[in-house]
Amino acid sequence: MRIASLLITTLLIPAAWADCECGYTVNNTLWTELWETDFLHLKNINESGWIPQEYEVDALDARGPYGKSAQVQNVVTNPLKSPYDWAGDGINGGDSGTQLIVKGGDPGKGKAIPMAEMSTNRSDMLYGSFRAGMRLTDVSGTCGAFFWYFNDSQEIDMEFLSREFNSTSHPVNLVLQSEASVAAGFNAANSDSFMTHPLPFDPTDGFHEYRFDWSPEKVDFYADGVFLRSMGGAGVPSNAAHLTLSQWTNGDPRWSGGPPESDAIMQVSYVKAYFNSSETKRQDDWKNRCKDIGATKATCEVPEVEGAPQGNVSGKTFFFSQQQNMTINQTTAGGDPGNLSKSGAFSILSSMQGLSTIMLLFSVSQIMIWCL
């Protein structure tokens, strides 16, 4: 009788066709899209879905003594020598990971300073959990940034000013660029959507994870999995857009400082994003695939880092894209550790559908879903 009872119970619980086919959960909130890039093993930036930026703005538009010149050659991949390692020297020598470089030296007053920036080729990211493994430069005079960007009045920023780093202080600037910051002369520090938070570690000594979780009501900021601050109100964005990583300077002594005396290198080990899409096609794809959100393994919880992701042990963070059967029709890129994932393999999942922002609560799975 016990065997029969167990069999009946098992049959009553439907199984998903593929693990995580309904999405990925963070703090009991379901995100239907995934974007993961393993920069420690990425050889070709053009196979990653990241687009190195090329542009130049003069000093006036850069709002500083110098202009800014984003150059493709300043985004440099430097993968580990072995696909089975998670720390060590890259194939080009020095520390591994994709490098964002600001060139050192004074180009002359008013001239543009060479910098680096790359953005995702998807701009449909609407609410989600976004995280990046980064090592900041110890060369004074730059601003390193991990951010989501729609326009100058809808932007979520984690910015690091290397001139502020010293033996006792390593702050991160948490910013929601909003209509209020635009009205204040593009200076969020003069609005209520700006906070400076001290980090309990030196961000230049190795890789650390920086993260923001964005919902319609608020944005929560984290470092190495530890909650830092929360921001809400009118500054919370409401449109879909893309992720960007950059390092730059315009010589403004009130912000970036600089120019740096020598080349300043910011390194990126990974980016992981779990989010909803604003595109109807991806929303429809999700509905067609996710037949039963309560089915076994239909949703997967996103593992959190426990401490700094450094070294061959803790540096090996979890990628759904490096597992079997957990990223069907998802966007994955970067290396082939253990021959579990294909470098540069692209596909797209879907997201939720709706005309207004609502929250659905599934009593079986206790998961919240933010719809568009």
What would you say this structure looks like, in words?
This protein is mainly beta and 372 residues long. It is 9% helix and 36% strand. Strands 3, 7, 8, 10, 15, 16, 17, 19 and 21 form a nine-stranded mixed sheet that branches. Strands 4, 5, 6, 9, 11, 12, 13, 14 and 18 form a nine-stranded mixed sheet that branches. A five-stranded mixed sheet has the order 20-1-2-23-22, with no helix packed on it. The longest helix has 11 residues, at 2-12. The protein is globular and about 60 Å long. Mean pLDDT is 86; it is low at 1-13 and 333-366.
Give the overall shape: globular
The helix content is under 10%
- As a percent range, the share of strand residues is 35-45%
Q: What is the CA-atom radius of gyration, in angstroms?
A: 21 Å
Largest sheet: 9 strands, mixed
What is the arithmetic mean of pLDDT? Answer: 86
Q: Structural class given helices, strands, pairing?
A: mainly beta
User: What's the total count of β strands?
Assistant: 23
User: How many helical elements?
Assistant: 5
Secondary-structure element series: HEEEEEHEEEEEEEEHEEEEEEHEHEEE
Low-confidence stretches: 1-13, 333-366
Our measurement of the CA-to-CA distance between the termini, rounded to an integer number of angstroms, reads: 48 Å
Keywords:
372 residues; mainly beta; nine-stranded mixed beta sheet; 5 helices; 23 strands; 36% strand; globular; disordered N terminus
Give a concise summary:
The protein is mainly beta and 372 residues long. The chain has 5 helices and 23 strands. The chain is globular.
